[in-house]
Amino acid sequence: MANSIYSINKAINKPIEFQGLKAQYIAYLAVGLVGLLLLFSILYICGTPVLICLVLIGSLGTILFMTVNRLSHKYGQYGLLKKAAKKSVPAYVRFHSYQLFTTLNHKTHGTGN
Fold first, then answer.
1. Total structural domains within the chain
2. Which DSSP state fits 18?
3. Helices and strands (DSSP H and E) totals, the chain
4. Is residue 41 part of a domain?
5. How far apart are the first and last CA of the chain?
6. DSSP state of 23
7. Would 109 be classed as within a structural domain?
8. Rounded distance, CA 84 to CA 79, Å?
9. What are the pLDDT digits (tens) for 67-96?
10. Are 17 and 27 in contact (CB under 8 A)?
11. Which residue in 10, 66, 96, 103 has a CA-CA distance of 20 to 30 Å to 41?
């Protein structure tokens, strides 16, 4: 039989990666760069000297790249989301009454009775 003209995509479930940044960190970097562009335009319109604008935006851009790159390597694809989700989980649940558990209906499910 002849070879198929269609190629199989081997990376079907792999996360998007660009220059070592994985998954959502690319979006974080894009949003940060858009913010820096807006900051530059606001400073320029307000009359700040161009050299000061360039130095400020350049240093903030460097900090942004280093921070996003460090987070990407430290937490990976889902690690930062898991860390944020872990903060919202309570350490323990306190009940003042056991009435909820004593009044549960003990029917068996799926037996057809």
1. 1
2. E
3. 4, 2
4. yes
5. 57
6. T
7. no
8. 9
9. 988 888 887 777 777 877 888 887 777 777
10. no
11. 66
